[in-house]
Amino acid sequence: MIDDNFIQVNKETCKRCGQCVNVCRGTLVMGNSGPEIAQNLCIECGHCVAVCPSGALNNTRTPLKNQVPIKKELSISSEIAAAFLRSRRSIRSFNSKAVEREIINKLLDIARFAPTACNSQGISYHVIDKKETLRSISSVIADWAEGNIKSGPLKNSPWVNNTANTIYQYRNSGKDTILRDAPCLIISTVKTEQFSLGRDNTHFSFSYVQLYAPTLGLGSCWSGLFEYCALDKYEPLLSLLEIPKNRVITGGLLVGYPVYHFKRLVDREPLQVTWQ
Ligand SMILES: Cc1cc2nc3c(=O)[nH]c(=O)nc-3n(C[C@H](O)[C@H](O)[C@H](O)COP(=O)(O)O)c2cc1C
């Protein structure tokens, strides 16, 4: 046993049922009077604490007091869950109404619970809700995209015509076809050295945000152009954003109140599954 006491067991209430050991990825073993640390592989997932039927286990790295009892009455049927998941839509027309910062905080708070590789977490959000800054961001993205359509990563993209059209409309329609006049752009960042995993993690986290948004009356859409411009480290864009030097951008999500509401669930390619 190693000399580290982040696991605390109430020996009176622990039934030694072994559930904590079975859900753990290799840190815990069952000892004579309850679970013990075999080796320090703890990734702070909190499963050992969450599964204990008698609340006898505490892990000081992911404390029992921060966990929330699961209410059976809040569970949803598979039919409701499927309809809810299918109803998520990318929103491209936003109301000019500003979104309260309190609501954005509430929206983002759910993203903390998305899965991350080895529970790495570590995503921060930088929210732009000033109209002037949003306008400047669109403007520099348009400059970047024009250059890149001619000679750069966008040139060989399968969506080059869509991008060219977006920029053409931006220049000629008087509408912000880049950030879609959204009142809010949420930028995700991770530590520079965690970029690769962090980008994957960001996709899951933003999925949580996108799914949760309609419950707050909000709509959202990934901003691919923002993302690619940021990933290309386009200096005029980066200098507009107050991102700490040791962090990199992993994604951008537009958020606002939708103008339109969908009446039907769309279809997609048929399910493709193989079995062996
Ligand atoms: C990584 C990623 C980047 C995207 N970039 C853009 C974008 O730049 N502009 C846009 O209008 N939609 C963008 N989308 C939204 C997709 O076009 C949309 O998810 C797809 O058309 C399916 O529609 P749905 O989200 O309503 O189901 C992006 C989605 C993802 C996942």
**Major beta sheet, specifics?**
4 strands, antiparallel
Oligomer: single chain
The first-to-last residue Cα distance is 42 Å
Percent of residues in helices comes to 25-40%
Output the CATH homologous superfamily of the largest domain: NADH Oxidase
- How many domains comprise the coordinates? 2
Contiguous uncertain segments of 5+ residues:
none
Please specify the SSE layout and strand pairing.
Layout: E1 7-9, H1 19-23, E2 28-31, E3 34-37, H2 47-51, E4 57-59, H3 78-86, H4 101-109, E5 124-128, H5 131-150, H6 160-172, E6 184-191, H7 195-212, E7 219-222, H8 224-231, H9 235-238, E8 247-256
Antiparallel strand pairs: 1-4, 2-3, 5-6, 6-8, 7-8
Bound molecules: flavin mononucleotide.
Protein model, in words:
The protein has two domains: about 5-65, Alpha-Beta Plaits; about 85-255, NADH Oxidase, CATH 3.40.109.10. Helices cover about 35% and strands about 15% of the residues. It contains nine helices and eight strands. The protein is elongated and about 75 Å long. Flavin mononucleotide binds near residues 89, 90 and 221. The site of flavin mononucleotide has 8 residues, from strand 7 and helix 8.
Please supply descriptive tags for the structure shown above.
276 residues, alpha+beta, Alpha-Beta Plaits, NADH Oxidase, 2 domains, four-stranded antiparallel β-sheet, two-stranded antiparallel sheet, binds flavin mononucleotide
